[in-house]
């Protein structure tokens, strides 16, 4: 495809943008409340950290609340987890919950409440809407919409996953083969996302993240090899390589979903919705690139050397991530 040249230029820009924009603040905060006894709740509040400082967030309620136990805090590397127990002097259902300080950040917050009667409620709070009223129960549609949004956001800020897709588009020049490769990638990470989230297969998160970065380096190397006229499995059968690496990337998606938490009564629905959101975000990314290609190629021709330059840009960023993540494994 002639239009691949503009994709290359976009890839180079994306690679540079990734390094600048790769910030942990886009990770959501998470507030979980579970009713263990009448009007008594176990609370878990996780907030993202930047270095040794956590985001200045706190959970507030409109009704009268008593803290039953001291707040215990412990860092997990990229987040601060706080746990305590509280007693509500008024029914929690019907109260307004606010993540104070959220309006001053770039992140969202997921709130998950499980009542003793089995009813649950999940909501996504944003800087523009940092509060919500806790209902008695939540519809399946509300759960679906919430997790679709989180899936879209995860892929939108998952720069490593997007760089892999971008590299794949640089290798595959025929649109039919591109559809086949993207389909294989989608099917593969859907399999491991489901299996890992349901606890059927588990892998430690840090080695998975390191391997994802390494997979991008390998794809970048294949782009250079192809431009030199060489052949490899990735060049001849890109769908096979996309499937194998897709299995790996699925574990990365699962790690993000586990961090968000799942509504116990709607786990299959939340899993499906998150996966749908990831796919919608991925397809939107591809559509934006191809739309830009067909628009700009009408006015300018991109030098072929940009393909190799973009491959090196992607490879350098991915190599940096690989070193960073491998170093984190041994800390």
From TrEMBL:
<dbReference type="Pfam" id="PF13795">
    <property type="entry name" value="HupE_UreJ_2"/>
</dbReference>
<feature type="transmembrane region" description="Helical">
    <location>
        <begin position="270"/>
        <end position="294"/>
    </location>
</feature>
<feature type="transmembrane region" description="Helical">
    <location>
        <begin position="179"/>
        <end position="201"/>
    </location>
</feature>
<keyword id="KW-0472">Membrane</keyword>
<keyword id="KW-1133">Transmembrane helix</keyword>
<protein>
    <recommendedName>
        <fullName>HupE / UreJ protein</fullName>
    </recommendedName>
</protein>
<keyword id="KW-0812">Transmembrane</keyword>
<feature type="transmembrane region" description="Helical">
    <location>
        <begin position="207"/>
        <end position="224"/>
    </location>
</feature>
<dbReference type="InterPro" id="IPR032809">
    <property type="entry name" value="Put_HupE_UreJ"/>
</dbReference>
<feature type="transmembrane region" description="Helical">
    <location>
        <begin position="306"/>
        <end position="323"/>
    </location>
</feature>
<feature type="transmembrane region" description="Helical">
    <location>
        <begin position="236"/>
        <end position="258"/>
    </location>
</feature>
